[in-house]
Automatic annotation (TrEMBL):
GO biological process: DNA-templated transcription initiation
Organism: Nonomuraea deserti
SUPFAM superfamilies xrefs: Periplasmic binding protein-like II, Sigma2 domain of RNA polymerase sigma factors, Sigma3 and sigma4 domains of RNA polymerase sigma factors
Keyword Transcription: yes
InterPro entries with a match to the protein in the record: RNA_pol_sigma-70_dom, RNA_pol_sigma-E_actinobac, RNA_pol_sigma70_r2, RNA_pol_sigma70_r4_t2, RNA_pol_sigma_r2, RNA_pol_sigma_r3/r4-like, SsuA/THI5, Tscrpt_reg_LuxR_C
Keyword annotations: Membrane, Sigma factor, Signal, Transcription, Transcription regulation, Transmembrane, Transmembrane helix
Stated name of the protein: SigE family RNA polymerase sigma factor
TM region positions: 224-244
Stored Pfam families: NMT1, Sigma70_r2, Sigma70_r4_2
Predominant localisation class: periplasm
Amino acid sequence: MDRNASFQGFADAHQHRLLRLAYLLTGDVHLAEDLLQSVLVRMYGRWSKLRHVDRPEAYARRTMVNQHISWRRRRATGEVSIANPPERAHSPEDSTVLRVVLHQALMRLTPKQRVVLVLRFYEDRTERDVADLLGCSVGTVKSQTHHALARLRALARLRALARLRALAPELAPRLPRPGRPGSHQGGPPMTWLGDELSRIADDMPRRDLGVRAIEAYHRRRRNVIAMAAAAVVVVVVLGGTAAIKLRPEAARPVAPPERAVIDVGVADTVEAAPLYVALNKGYFAAEGLRVRPVLSHLAGAVHAAETGEFDLAQTDYVATFVARQQDRSVRIVGGLYRAHPGSMALVVKAGSGIESVADLKGGKVAVPHLRGLSSLSVAALLKRGGLKMEDVALVESPYHNVVKGLDAGLAATLLAEPYLTTSVREKSVRVLRPALTGEFEGLPTAGWMAGDDWIRDNPRTLEAFKRALAKAHRLIAADPAQAVQALPSSTKFAARDLDGLALGSYSADLDVKGLQRLADLARKYSILKKGLDVRDVIG
């Protein structure tokens, strides 16, 4: 068997189990893929030797665990999927709430604490096994386990009983509580924790990373060879010009942005937090920019960006896709946010008799934008519930109006954070179905757009804006509390009302593959009239 076939066979046999482990360690689908793929690339480079060892998967696990602990790209908070909760005799929200609580608390542990708990209770390894894997003493493993469980209990209580009990207060007496080390609700010690970790790992979709790892390895080798050749050329050129005396010349100043002041349209949701972090930290000022955030309804953002009312504007991507198919002059210029699966939901009035999506037939459903991500997610929910878009009447209304609309004839409305958690906590609404699960899980959900003319006329301004935001995103990645502290500015909610939000992840990079999947879903559910290549929409 040749090298490629042998390696692919190994990857096919073990990659999903390793991916599940990576997901528990990172808390994020994409970071889990990145972590495992980096390990597979390294293994492929050494496969001529590794293929002959007894258990190459053990090498993969050890390398992945150690790389995770030292990986600077890891995120302190993860995205928690609540897709496809297991069927239960009572409300399916019961196990969903518990899984969300545990996953969010798990992601608040230190990387080493998280590794120890996952290896001990998910992979059911002995303390000696974990010590050997981490290269430490058994005493260190015991200490890490003790402190990790204590912190997990405290975090779970705070998050579960402050926020997630509000989602389903009638279930509160039935929710299991993480107990003391060695305790369990009627079963073997800590079996409960292992079971719940396994359910969290179920949220990791299957991926084929073997072929991608092989391609990445060869691409990296080609790049190294090309760089080495370029270095030789540089040395030769420099050697030939070393004797030439150049007249001293002052460094050319960097040209300032074309615009010193820009107006940026933002929604009153959690997505725009990096903009306010950049403002508060002076990152825009350092680039010679004065940025003025302007609260805007999602439905009007395309027009405002196209006409120049806004220099840049927040977009949910789908709205920009639709606009381009309508020959509107706007393009996507930057990434911003990837939603938590529980951060958007279809809700009904508390006390409503509506128990399923099928019960919405003939009713009115409110969304913030009729041709955006919100209407796309509703279309998918309706199809899963056996309905078509024609079976309900979609009405357009901004988030701050729709809760009142439930008292004025609306059957349901789509809510995003922070409106979702605050409304549930106030017991004015009840979650009917989470919106960004299943095929929508892990997709990018918010970015920045600008008009074609503005992009052409203001390249330095755009680059300065993106550089400042990139600094804010890096700061948030290192310290997620920075985003939380900015939320009162970005949402206009009081800080006391923002505890326990289901936050996603912030990224300035454009995920082209994710955007293409989003565009394909928009075509699948007839939000787009025809297929779209998202590369044509990126400016």
